Amino acid sequence: MYRETQIIKETSPGIVGETGEFTINVGPQHPATHGVLHLVITLSGETIMKVEPHLGYIHRSIEKMCESLTYRQFIYVTSRMDYLSSHINNHACALCVEKGMQIEVPERAKVIRVLMDELTRIASHELWWGAMAMDLGAFTPFFHAFRERESINEIMEETCGARLTMNYNVPGGVMQDLHPDFQRKVKEFLKLYKSKIHEYDELVTGNIIFQNRMKGVGILSAKDAISYGCSGPTARGSAVSSDIRKVYPYGIYDKLEFDEVLETGCDSFARYMVRIREMQQSIRIIEQLIDNIPEGDFQAKTKAVLKLPKGEFYTKVETARGELGVYIVSEGGTTPYRIKFRSPGFSNLSVLDHIARGSKIGDLVAMMGTLDLVIPDIDR
Amino acid sequence: MFLIDYIKDVTGAVKSLATGMKRTLYYFTHHKEIITEQYPDNRATLVMAERFKGEVVMPHDEKNEHRCTGCTACELACPNGTIKVVTKFDITPEGKKKKAIDKLVYHLELCTMCNLCIEACPSDAIKMAQTFEHSVFNRSDLTKILNNPGSKIMEGVE
C-alpha cells in the first residue's frame, strides 16, 4: 500500500531542487492565513528565500461593477472591499461624490461620520488584535477582543441597521439620524473599554513569549516602507508619518485633538504597538465629540439623480489599514466612466516578501498578522 | 553579572506569564462577567434593534390596504435588481384608468439590505423588517410577493 508521502517522492523527485530549496503552498485553505490568500513560499530548510502571493481568489471586479451603478448605488459595494472598516470606505466614496457635486455637508453629518469612523477603527483593531494573537497560538484574547467589539457592533446595529456592512453614508450626509440611545450607548462603551484596556497588556503585550516572537522580526525600514507604498499602521510602525487624518485632513479632523501614533521600532512589535495606541487615540476623538454633536440636518438636500460634471475626482481617507483612495472619472453621465480604488492592503501585502526573506517560516504568520491583511480589500 | 541578568530574565518571564494566567483565572471564577448570548435558546426573548435591516416588507392595514402607488422608484434605486414592480390599470369609480401595482416581486436572495429602496420610496410603502432567519430548503421560497392577494391602495395616497 502506498502512503501519500511515498507517492509524492516517487512521482515528483524534483520537489527538492539541486540547491536544496523547496516550495510549499500556504493557502488558500490554510487556517493560519486570513481570508483566501495563496502564498507560494520557497524555503531552504526553515529559512524563507522567497514569498510569492498569488491573488485573485476573491476577486469580484468591484471597480467594474461600480461603473454600471449610479453615484448613489455604488457606495454600498465598497462595504464589501475592506469589510472591517466598511464605514470608512463608504465615507471615502461619499466624499468623492460630494467633491464632484460640490455638496456642502451639514456639520452634524460630518460629526456623525467621524464618530462612526472612529468606532469602526476601534472595532477593526479589536478584531485584528484577537485574530493576530490567535495566529500566534493564544486563543483567549480573541474572546476578550470580541467582547468589546460586540458592544460597538450593537451601537452600529442600533443606528445604522447592520453590524458590518452598514451603508450608512449617502452623498450629502448620512442615511438616518442618530438613534436616541446612541450617546448613552457610546458612553457605556467608553466606560467598558477603559475598564478592560489593561487586560490587553496583561494578556498579550507583556507576555514574554509574545514579545520574543515579535521583537526584531519583520524589519521594515522607513525607506523601504516609503518605496513600497506602505500606509497606515504598517508605515507608522517604521516612523513614517502617513496619517491622512493629519496630513490631508478631511471631515472635521483638522479641528480635533489627537496624536499621530509613530513607533520607531520598525519591527512587528512596533506595528503592534501602533495599533494598540491608535485605539486609545480613537477613544480620545470620540470623547471630544460625543457631548458636542451639533444640532441640525443630518443630510444635505440633493437632487434625486446625481450627475457629476465631466472631470476627474480623487479623495483619500485613512481607513483602519491605511490610505484608501477613490478616483472617479466622470463623463457627465449618471454613472461613473471609470472608478479606481487605491486600497491599503495591496501595497501593504507587497512588502511581505521583502520583510520575510531570510527569516524562519514560523515568523511568517506573525509578520502577516502585523500587516493586518484583509484579502477582499487586496483583491477587490 | 551574567548570572544575575539570567535570573532577572527568568523571573521577569515567569511574572509576565503569571499576569496573563491571573486574568484567565479571574474570568474562570467570575461567571457573571461572561456575556455570551445563548442563541437559539433565547429566541423567545431576543429583541432585534428597531432599525435592523432584515428584509423588505410592505405593511398592510386591517382593511388589507397598502401605500404603494407603483411608481417604480424602489426598482430604479435598487443596485441589484432585487425589486420588480408589475403594474396594472385599475378602473376608478369615476370610470378613469388608474395605475396600480399588480405584484411587487422581491428577490430576497439578491438583496444586500442596503436600505436604498426604502430611502427612495416617496409614500413610505415599504420598510425593513427585523427578521433574520432566512434559511429555506428551496431557492424559489426566497422570491416573495410583497403585496397581499386582493390588496389595494390606501385612500389618499398619491
Output the keywords.
heterodimer; A: 380 residues; alpha+beta; Cytochrome-c3 Hydrogenase, chain B; three-stranded antiparallel sheet; 12% strand; B: Alpha-Beta Plaits; 24% helix
Report on this structure:
The complex is a heterodimer of chains A (380) and B (158). Chain A is α+β, with helices and mostly antiparallel strands. Chain A has one domain (62-379): Cytochrome-c3 Hydrogenase, chain B, CATH 1.10.645.10. Chain A is built from 16 helices and eight strands. The N and C termini of chain A lie far apart (46 Å). In chain A, 44% of the residues are buried. A three-stranded antiparallel β-sheet of chain B has the order 3-4-6, with no helix packed on it. In chain B, strands 1-5 form a two-stranded antiparallel sheet. Chain B has two domains: 2-33; 55-153, Alpha-Beta Plaits. Chain A binds chain B through residues 69, 72-74, 76-77, 140, 147, 150, 154, 157-162, 165, 167, 170, 175-176, 179, 199, 202-204, 206-209, 211, and chain B through 12-13, 16-17, 19-20, 22-24, 35, 48-53, 77-79, 112-116, 119, 128.
Structural topology:
The complex is a heterodimer of chains A (380) and B (158).
Chain A: H1 4-11, E1 21-26, E2 38-44, E3 47-54, H2 62-67, H3 74-77, H4 86-101, H5 107-135, H6 140-160, E4 169-170, E5 173-174, H7 182-205, H8 208-214, H9 222-227, H10 233-236, H11 244-247, H12 268-290, E6 311-318, E7 323-330, E8 338-342, H13 344-350, H14 352-356, H15 364-371, H16 375-379
Antiparallel strand pairs in A: 1-2, 2-3, 4-5, 6-7, 7-8
Chain B: H1 2-29, E1 55-57, E2 65-66, H2 73-77, E3 83-91, E4 97-107, H3 116-120, E5 127-129, E6 143-145, E7 152-153
Parallel strand pairs in B: 2-7
Antiparallel strand pairs in B: 1-5, 3-4, 4-6
